[in-house]
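Weekly sync, protein design subgroup
Attendees: M.S., D.O., the rotation student, P.L. (late)

Item 1: inverse folding check
M.S. brought a backbone from last month's batch and wanted to see whether the design step gives back something sensible before we order anything. D.O. pointed out we never logged the input encoding, so this time it goes straight into the notes. Structure tokens as presented (250 positions):
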């Protein structure tokens, strides 16, 4: 019997890379996508292969429908099955107020974080749905605690893009529950990855950690644990759930 296959968008770094490695240790074959960081993505693939699992890294901008379709086609051709999808690729932007937002900023944010998530979910549902001849599967969305908190004076657009993802999780979970597909989300809090620097705030974790009830940021591995559980057969009756992984930052 072939191993189960998971596709993780944005698997070159941070939470996606930790999820890829954790999934491989649990016996999954893993496809990761990335946007720019070719070397980091291929280092993740090498680590997975050294664990004895199959792996591939594919450059695919989730802001492009065409590139998303190519990504899923590659999974079809090279792996022949898709058992789980982790919709993890996401971006933040510079800290700004809503009054300062440009159209360009809003279009980029929603194209990558929201429309990209919907298009990836669509491609997975088409392949997994038992009513379409698939074997069922699991979709895990990587949302954010920002969807609860709103991220004022930081990035309300990012928070809103994740709020849309949460509602997609609830609606899609019900839409495909009878077709063998579970859909859940994790909502990480302050996690130690490069994303803060990419938003122009490299000190964000250190600065905000004291405001977290647990008084620390989380690790990508702590988020990966929950994602891999949601992907797996160990959570067979869990769908439509939004799980906070935020050290009590609610
Ligand atoms: P990260 O370290 O910045 O990694 C982001 C990943 O997404 C990278 O693999 C990156 O690829 C990929 N990516 C970015 N834009 C992409 C695009 N247009 N197309 C395809 N891939 C793209 O971020 P992270 O902290 O691990 O974040 C992962 C997810 O967790 C995001 O959805 C984020 O919103 C969410 N999250 C993070 C935190 C946190 O505190 N870190 C908290 C809550 C939620 P390249 O390496 O090629 O650039």
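Designed sequence read out in the meeting:
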């Amino acid at each position: 019997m072939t191993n189960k296959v998971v596709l993780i968008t944005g698997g070159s770094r941070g939470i996606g890379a930790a999820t890829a490695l954790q999934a491989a240790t649990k016996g999954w074959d893993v496809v990761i996508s990335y946007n720019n960081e070719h070397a980091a993505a291929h280092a993740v693939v090498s680590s997975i292969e050294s664990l004895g699992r199959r792996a591939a890294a594919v450059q695919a901008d989730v802001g492009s429908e065409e590139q998303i379709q190519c990504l899923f086609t590659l999974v079809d051709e090279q792996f022949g099955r898709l058992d789980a999808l982790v919709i993890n690729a996401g971006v933040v932007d510079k800290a700004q107020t809503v009054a300062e937002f440009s159209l360009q900023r809003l279009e980029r944010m929603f194209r990558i974080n929201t429309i990209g998530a919907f298009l990836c979910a669509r491609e997975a549902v088409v392949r997994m749905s038992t009513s379409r001849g698939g074997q069922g599967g699991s979709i895990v969305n990587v949302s954010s605690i920002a969807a609860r908190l709103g991220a004022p004076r930081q990035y309300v657009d990012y928070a809103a893009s994740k709020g849309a993802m949460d509602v997609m999780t609830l609606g899609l979970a019900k839409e495909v529950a009878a077709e063998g597909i579970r859909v859940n989300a994790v909502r990480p809090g302050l996690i130690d990855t490069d994303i803060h620097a990419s938003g122009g705030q490299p000190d964000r974790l250190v600065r905000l950690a004291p405001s977290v009830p647990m008084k620390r940021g989380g690790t990508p591995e702590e988020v990966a644990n929950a994602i891999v559980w949601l992907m797996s057969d160990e959570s067979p009756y869990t769908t439509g759930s939004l799980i906070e992984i935020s050290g009590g930052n609610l």
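Discussion: Residues 104 and 110 are 10 Å apart (CA to CA). The beta strands are 5-8, 29-34, 55-59, 84-87, 137-142, 181-188, 242-245.
Action: P.L. to compare against the previous round before Friday.
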